[in-house]
Design goal:
Elements lengths: L5 H16 L29 H4 L5 E7 L4 H13 L7 E8 L4 H11 L4 E7 L2 H4 L21 H4 L6 E5 L3 E3 L3 H5 L9 E3 L1 E2 L10 H4 L2 H4 L9 E2 L3 E5 H7 L1 H14 L8 H8 L4 E2 L28 E3 L6 H6 L25
Parallel strand pairs: 1-2, 1-4, 2-3, 6-10
Antiparallel strand pairs: 4-9, 5-11, 6-9, 7-8
GO molecular function, one term: glycosyltransferase activity
Subcellular location: Endomembrane system
Membrane topology: Single-pass type II membrane protein
């Protein structure tokens, strides 16, 4: 095993600081402007952030995180949402970014590519969650910004009662309003596609399952896996039930006794599995990033497709740049806004 001297540690710490504080220097093209259809309800146009609370009856709220490593994916996801929406002017984006990045620079990048976009960027103090993160089977899963979804109800203004949360490694090929209007019933907090054939036991350690006081958490619940990269969340019910605290309590327990291995997903399963509203699988064709260990390409699941999700180790922009794409990466490429020296405006 390789040993690390103090100088090695300082070197890697310096690299980490540079990455975290870097400006978003990539050049992205301006996206086309998309207009509402004639049947869309009108929402107010204001010059300040009051638009967030002025349009709750007719607006569609979408939340995402933004960081340097995934910004190219985020830009593609935004474009796909707008392009396939019947009422793109009614979409309000809520972006969460690390407090350590250049928020003003990030604002300029988004506004330059999407001049007409209604959006707000919220700085997230990652130190609040960093102390709670345990190492997982993939280092990428330990990024503190992955855990920002736990705090959306605290970050987004309380006037916003419902939001669609989307990861940055996906594109929509259907109208997001269909997802946003998913029925949640009278009590359910969130909705997501469920996968009840998955082996649920693998998400938790033998320590968890051998402890009755822990394993009984799932008593009388139908255990179905769901991917947290695509969720419809009732923020009002989340706040009323203080679900952020419930998730944090499981993360604190994980620090004391290892009960799971896989990043930010298990706490969501512990709190919500078996108690969510169903969403058709077409809204999360996930796993397109391939095998976590060998980088294998994946095929689509059977059935219709409304959302393509490159969850997993491989990202389409990385594979395309390396000239080693998987076949389905060609479906992501048309949404790529990165300005390259070889791009010719049509």
């Amino acid at each position: 095993m390789q040993s690390f001297s103090c100088s090695n540690v300082l070197h890697f710490l310096l690299i980490f600081i540079i990455i975290q504080t870097t400006t978003f220097a990539a050049e992205f093209r301006e996206a086309p402007k998309f207009y509402n259809s004639q049947t869309c309800p009108k929402i107010m146009s204001t010059t300040d952030t009051s638009f967030i609370c002025s349009n709750n009856d007719n607006a569609v709220h979408v939340a995402m995180t933004l960081d340097a490593a995934y910004l190219r994916g985020s830009m593609a996801a935004i474009l796909s949402v707008l392009q396939h929406s019947s009422c793109p002017e009614n979409i309000i984006f809520h972006f969460v970014a690390s407090l350590s990045v250049d928020i003003d620079g990030l604002n300029l990048v988004i506004a330059k590519s999407f001049p007409y976009l209604r959006f707000q960027i919220y700085p997230f103090d990652i130190s609040s969650v960093s102390r709670l993160i345990s190492t997982s089977i993939r280092a990428a899963l330990d990024c503190p910004l992955n855990y920002a979804r736990n705090y959306l109800a605290d970050i987004i203004p309380t006037c916003v009662s419902k939001v669609v949360y989307l990861d940055s490694d996906l594109v929509l090929v259907d109208d997001v309003v269909k997802l946003f209007t998913t029925p949640l019933g009278s009590e359910v907090v969130l909705a997501a596609p469920e996968y009840c054939n998955a082996n649920f036991t693998t998400y938790f350690t033998p320590t968890f399952w051998s402890n009755p006081s822990l394993s009984l958490t799932f008593a009388n619940r139908k255990l179905c896996y769901f991917n947290t990269g695509v969720m419809v969340i009732d923020l009002g019910r989340w706040r009323a039930g203080d679900y952020t605290t419930k998730i944090v309590e499981w993360m604190e327990l994980q620090k004391r006794m290892r009960i799971y291995e896989l990043g930010s997903l298990p706490p969501f399963l512990l709190v919500f599995a078996g108690n969510i509203a169903p969403v058709d699988h077409r809204w999360n064709q996930h796993g397109l990033g391939g095998d976590n260990f060998r980088g294998l390409c994946r095929n689509l699941h059977p059935g219709p497709v409304s959302l393509l999700h490159w969850s997993g180790k491989g990202k389409p922009w990385v594979r395309l740049d390396a000239n080693r794409p998987c076949p389905l990466d060609a479906l992501w490429a048309p949404y790529d806004l990165l300005q390259t020296p070889y791009f010719l405006d049509s």
